[in-house]
Each structure stands twice: as structure tokens, then as C-alpha cells.
């Protein structure tokens, strides 16, 4: 669909954009190493299904608590977890570049009624990105992607898979973050019923279509605000101590520099990551 010479494009921050702790993910090209490598250790503690939940900090954009390896709980003895002190992420949390927002969503919680999932893998889709649905401009389908940040953009892939995205950046940017994989925290029985699989293995939630199905979503959820209590909401959660980065999946139609861009992020050590895993690595 797109043709280009194999020349990487520089993705520089807009001069009006605020600085971010995730500036290190902005590549001059797909081969330029990131700075600030002291933020991430190379050896990750394993992340299992059910993390301990720490109270949310009052300042959402401040540094979050680190995620440590949780104690394993089998799904048959699902722990009683209270989210009473876990705050819904405010709208301003999402009003940043999609490339900054994507890694910040790792470790956060998606809740719909009794089902709670922890986000373990995401992909960023930026403004002027040839892999993004925003490349088509505003259509009835993509209109929510160009709407207010912090809203859901839900679409049907291949007529089968419901895909959940979180709208990022300023209104009109057409940018968002795809939720690729999650780990179950609460409501395992409901998740299994919706997925039609009686398993507690990662296959249950490793893939964007599986996440949408587990949450019982349809395209009618598109444009739903994720920062308001009730319905579908995004809750604060612990920041991962270590992450992995890699190229996005299934975007061979895009320009070479976008195909190769390391805009896929996952929690290091987690089993709840979709294929392919061999393209993910610690940030340099």
C-alpha cells in the first residue's frame, strides 16, 4: 500500500511538547540506541499472574512505584483483591505522545465490572504514522481515534477480533496505543467463559483480540471515556521495573521506517506476552 526508500525518518519531539521520562524511547532511527539506560535493568524479575496492588500515588504523572515479582496464586484460589484505594487514571495522564504513553500503560489495570486485567504488552501508533488507522483521516470508524485523549478506540479486525486502543495526545492527532496482551487479575471464570477456553495459561489473553473478547467489548465501546468510574476504566498500577522493546506486529504494509520502529513494549519476565517474542529485547 505504501512505497518508500529504506531510509529511516527522524521522529523528533514537537517543540510544544512537554518533556517525559520516556524520551529515551524516541529513536533518531530504528538503529540508534536509547539513552538513560540506567532506568532499566537487564535482568528482570519474573512477573506472574496476580500482582500485589499498591495504593495509587496522588500525582499521576510522577514516578510510580516499582513492580516487584508477585507471589503466585493459582486461578482456582484467586486472591481477594480490593481496588477501593486504586484510583482511576485522570484524563491528563493520556494527553501525551502515544510513544510516551505506551510504556506508561504497562502494569496498569483495565476493569469492567468483575473482570480486571493487568496490561502486559502494548504498541504505540503515532500521528503521521503509516501503520496507524489515522493515516486514512477521519472516517466514521476512526473518528474516536481523533477525539479526546483517554477515550477508547475499538475496532473490528478481519471482521472477527475486537481490538482495544487508548486514544493519546491532543484532540485531532489521530494517535493511540493498542493493548496487545494482559494478565488476569480478577474474574477468571468470566474471562474463560467469554474466551471459550477453560485454561489459566497465557494463551488466554496474549493477543489484542483476546483482550477485547475477555472484556466483553464490541465496537459500541469506541469513544468510551476510560477515566470515568463505571463501565470500562483504566486504573493506576505499579510501574514495571524492567521492560522489553521491539518492532510492532503485522504492519508490513507500512513505510519501512515505521515497520522497523521499536514501538512495541512489554513487561520483561512476564509470560503474558504475544508472539513473536523473539523480536523483543531490553532497551539499550
Automatic annotation (TrEMBL):
SUPFAM superfamilies: FMT C-terminal domain-like. It catalyses: Hydrolysis of alkylated DNA, releasing 3-methyladenine, 3-methylguanine, 7-methylguanine and 7-methyladenine. It holds the Pfam family Pur_DNA_glyco. Residues 59-81 are annotated as: Disordered. GO terms for biological process: base-excision repair. Its EC number is 3.2.2.21. Keywords: DNA damage, DNA repair, Hydrolase. The keyword Hydrolase applies. It comes from the Eukaryota. Coiled coil: none annotated. It is an enzyme of class 3 (hydrolase). GO terms for molecular function: alkylbase DNA N-glycosylase activity; DNA binding. Hydrolysis of the deoxyribose N-glycosidic bond to excise 3-methyladenine, and 7-methylguanine from the damaged DNA polymer formed by alkylation lesions. This is DNA-3-methyladenine glycosylase II.
